[in-house]
Amino acid sequence: MAKFDVNSSLKRLQNRYRLVIMNDDSYEEVVTFKLSRLSVYIFLSTIFVLLTGLTVALIVFTPLKLYIPGYGDVNNTKELREIKVRTDSLEEQVRYKDLYLLNIKNVLEGNKQMAVDTTALKIPKPEKIDD
């Protein structure tokens, strides 16, 4: 098995390379860069960290955070819960009112058969008062 040598890997990261951008028509050098693998790695890592930081800052310090599920303002969440409870109770009241009005309409039109209460009641006879 090949042995991993730290010194050779470090030297490979520090080897210098030249990046030349040339004009294709005149073969004139436009820009020349002296790079190493380590400098390219550091540059790309720095760009990644900066972009990540800017993205996080953009989300945290602007109203974009409200679009993240579960990251709303505590007061807004409390208000939304209260509004939901109030809406549910109002819907229930409207349903009761509609049922009441339907029953009244059926009774007035004579469409609804009323169930006769056949329970025997024990009503005491009124006492006669003798004068």
Provide an overview of this structure.
- There is one protein chain.
- By secondary structure, this protein is mainly alpha-helical.
- It folds into two domains: 1-67, no CATH class; 73-109.
- The chain contains three helices and two strands, in the order αββαα.
- Strands 1-2 form a two-stranded antiparallel ribbon.
How is this structure best summarized?
The protein has helices spanning 6-14, 37-60, 74-109; strands spanning 16-22, 29-36. The protein is mainly alpha-helical and 131 residues long.
Instruction: Please state the average pLDDT score.
Output: 86
Please report which band the strand proportion falls in: under 5%, 5-15%, 15-25%, 25-35%, 35-45% or over 45%.
Answer: 5-15%
- Which bin fits the share of residues in helices? 40-55%
Q: What is the helix/strand order?
A: HEEHH
Domains (count): 2
**What shape does the CA trace take?**
rod-shaped
Number of helices: 3
Which structural class matches the secondary elements? mainly alpha
How do the strands and helices of this protein lay out in sequence?
Blueprint: H1 6-14, E1 16-22, E2 29-36, H2 37-60, H3 74-109
Antiparallel strand pairs: 1-2
Features:
131 residues; two-stranded antiparallel ribbon; 11% strand; rod-shaped; mainly alpha; single chain
